[in-house]
Amino acid sequence: MKLAVYAIAKNEVKNVKKWYDSIKDGADGIFVTDTGSTDGTVELLEALGVHVDKATVSPWRFDLARNLSLMNVPEDYDMCLCLDLDEIMLPNWREELDKIYFEGLNMVRYPYVFSWEDEECTIPKMSLYQFKIHSRNGYLWKYPIHEILEWIGDGEENEIICESIVSHHFQDTSKPRDYQTLLDEAVKEYPDDQRMSHLRGRELFMFGRHEEAIEELKRHLKLTEWIDDVSILKTRAMSMRYIARALYFINQRDGKEDGTDIVRWLMRGAAESPEQRESWIWLANAWFSVGKYRLAHACAEMGLTITDKKNSIENESICWGDFPERLIKDSLQLLEEAEHEASNNER
């Protein structure tokens, strides 16, 4: 199996060495398409022996840039790894890939830590299953932002999940990014695309535009209300969780203490996608916040029965750490205190 690593880059000189060191021993060829670096990125890459092509993408679109980058990989490679320069592969990734490779394999999904709780990037916050190991031929990148690989090859796509290949992302928050504008454009370009609608709503939420986020996320639910597909139901549940969280911040801002609307959305999310641990843990947290400790205990216990992270599109580390156990412990303690107080009152 002959494997190429490819990437797009712009002003990534501080990431080059760490990125390169993580893939140099596993790649049979390394190809970077630079889109306008002025900080020495190109010179350092070339000094390391990386093949660098230059391209101008205006107006900027990630799908176009990635497709140009993929085109710069010679067609005699069997597999590709698309790895941005703010990402690294953990050791032994190539050995693990060789173990599972078979002729006709098209895509490998693998654990990917997207964000971190701490500045030192030691405590994972959000993780998912990445999809950027793929066959050289048969794919095109699609969407101007949050782009995905679309299968255009002959026959059925052959995909496998490998837990022993792991990648980490270290986003440089100092670099300017305007994902919201790209998402606005994506929704205009694909008005009926449920994924773009969900992602636009999520981005609005992340930037504190809570009313707009709720409006867009409700539009996502409208677009998908008749779709009975497991992955769509999971995304719908995520939209409902984001609506609930947006409502929480609106209630906080407006001094509203009633959390009934939040609980209602989280109940809907758990009903639509009960196989996601996040659905149950956030519902448990909502019940706890309104003083329904038996329900909080029951929902947290239910969440803990879900042990397969592949059930969730996005793994929120708080739901997979000690938070569920703390919810259970605190719920039981408050229940005991309430029962003790009631017993004293009866006397």
What do the pLDDT scores average to?
A: 95
Order of helices and strands: EHEHEHEEHEEEEEEHHHHHHHEHH
Computed structural class:
alpha/beta
Number of strands: 12
Classify the oligomer: single chain
Instruction: Report Rg.
Output: 23 Å
Name the helicity range: 40-55%
Unreliable runs: none
Number of helices: 13
Q: What's the shape? A: elongated
The separation of the N and C termini measures 78 Å
Biggest sheet features: 10 strands, mixed
Write the layout of secondary structure elements.
Elements: E1 3-9, H1 13-23, E2 29-34, H2 41-47, E3 51-54, H3 62-71, E4 79-82, E5 87-89, H4 93-100, E6 107-116, E7 124-135, E8 139-142, E9 148-151, E10 159-161, E11 167-169, H5 179-189, H6 194-206, H7 210-223, H8 230-254, H9 260-272, H10 277-289, H11 293-304, E12 314-316, H12 317-320, H13 323-346
Parallel strand pairs: 1-2, 1-4, 2-3, 6-10, 6-11
Antiparallel strand pairs: 4-7, 5-11, 6-7, 7-12, 8-9
Helix pairs in contact: 1-2, 5-6, 6-7, 6-8, 7-8, 8-9, 9-10, 10-11, 10-13, 11-13
